[in-house]
Design a protein that fits this description.
Blueprint lengths: L12 E5 L28 H13 L4 E5 L9 H9 L6 E6 L8 H7 L3 E5 L5 H8 L4 H14 L4 E7 L8 H6 L6 E7 L15 H8 L20 H8 L9 H7 L3 H12 L3 E2 L9 E4 L11 E5 L12 E4 L4 E3 L8 E2 L1 H5 L4 H13 L18 H4 L2
Parallel strand pairs: 1-2, 1-10, 2-3, 3-4, 4-5, 5-6, 6-9
Antiparallel strand pairs: 7-8, 8-9, 10-11, 11-12
Helix pairs in contact: 1-2, 2-3
Length: about 375
């Protein structure tokens, strides 16, 4: 019997974080020195992850995704892919990665049952890559992209977090990739994970939501939600950036925020109209397609994940399992249920399944970011977002 929450949504998608460690230090995700990580003894073993995945599939969760941190930094990750890929009933097994180590795994992942990958990439410029990711290099990620396409890990999605003062001038360049390649670009609004920390802007989350919806915002007008709004936003961001020390704080993230409506406007002004497109396993993104100069539809698509300006919660079909065994019903809320303890205390599959059912019953209808309520207990690398 499928899992259905109290709002009638069928919950058929489980994201399994395999580690909270990462080989990058992206400015919106993690301090340069890294974040606190769980003791190795707290991290679920591959056998434990496979057992939980098997229970989830028996409950109708046939769409599974492996995440991190960065999943490829965990030793013998191909062994886990093969184990979960071999579970009867898995309809779609995917993986989210920064792509830097992917070229060495792509073929084996495909043989092990992985269907496709999402690769995080926030810039097409080598020098900017160093500024944003602070580890690795663009060439290494492109090797992972090419290896994935060659192995048939498709549809291949590139996830780009758009930030004013960092990469908003590359939006059209990313979209242009879809004209000649079967890449599916997903532009993501900067999400307020831990925006409540380091708040020196003098304005609350609710005020940010109200002001960011003003028409003038699309024209990059100076709005009072930004500290020192008398100055150009990009200049302020550069002046106040602490990217060499830690991750961006709440005020910096608000200044860097770019709404999806502005992203779309930039693409259409340079590349023409975006028309609706269907894509299997589309997820929370609204997908569109450009038309090539020869009149043919582009082989790739452009999508927008507008978690902030266009709440997509009403269609949410997922749960998240953290690498230390906590089951979360919502990315943007702090509630979670402990699976590790019963798992290691001899609980039966049915007893663990009952915890899944309980979490689904308590899944909220939507986030409450507009009310100033945001997750603070874990950052993105710890959530497996």
């Amino acid at each position: 019997m499928p899992l259905v929450d109290s709002f009638g949504r069928t919950i058929d998608y489980l994201r399994l974080s395999v580690t909270d460690r990462c080989n990058f230090r992206c400015v919106y995700c993690m301090p340069e020195e890294g974040s606190p990580v769980s003791p190795k003894a707290s991290i679920l073993t591959y056998e434990e992850l496979t057992r939980l995945a098997t229970i989830a599939v028996s409950l109708g969760m046939t769409k599974l995704r492996l995440t991190g941190g960065e999943p490829l930094v965990r030793k013998d990750i191909e062994r886990l892919v093969k184990a979960i890929g071999g579970i009867p009933g898995v309809r779609d097994l995917s993986l989210t990665t920064n792509g830097y180590l992917l070229d060495r795994y792509a073929e084996e992942f495909k043989r092990g049952g992985l269907s496709r990958v999402n690769i995080s990439l926030d810039t097409l410029k080598p020098e900017r890559f160093t500024r944003i990711a602070r580890r690795g290099d663009l060439e290494g990620v492109w090797k992972g992209i090419e290896a994935s396409l060659s192995a048939g890990l498709t549809p291949l999605k590139l996830n780009c977090v758009v930030m004013r003062g960092y990469n908003e001038d590359e939006i059209a360049d990313f979209a242009r990739l879809t004209l000649d390649t079967p890449l599916h670009i997903r532009f993501i609004e900067l999400m307020p994970i831990n925006w409540s920390s380091g708040d020196d802007s003098g304005v609350g989350m609710a005020d940010f939501f109200a002001l960011s919806a003003m028409p003038g915002y699309l024209q990059n007008e100076k709005i009072a939600v930004y500290a020192r709004a008398d100055k150009n936003l990009t200049q302020v961001l550069k002046e106040r950036s602490n990217e060499g020390q830690g991750m961006l704080d709440s005020a910096q993230m608000r200044r860097a925020f770019v709404p999806a409506s502005e992203m779309r406007l930039r693409i259409e002004e340079e590349l023409g109209e975006l028309t609706p497109a269907d894509l299997q396993t589309n997820g929370p993104a609204s997908a569109f397609r450009l038309t090539r100069p020869d009149g043919l539809p582009a082989p790739g698509t452009v999508g927008f994940i507008s978690q902030i300006t266009k709440d997509v919660c009403r269609n949410c079909n997922r749960l998240r399992l953290t690498s230390d065994g906590q089951l979360r019903p919502c990315l943007m809320a702090d509630g979670e249920a402990d699976l590790r303890t019963p798992l290691r205390s001899g609980a039966s599959d049915e007893e663990i399944a009952e915890i899944f059912r309980s979490v689904v019953v308590h899944k909220p209808f939507e986030h409450r970011l507009e009310d100033g309520i945001a997750p603070t207990g874990r950052n993105m690398s710890q959530l497996g977002g």
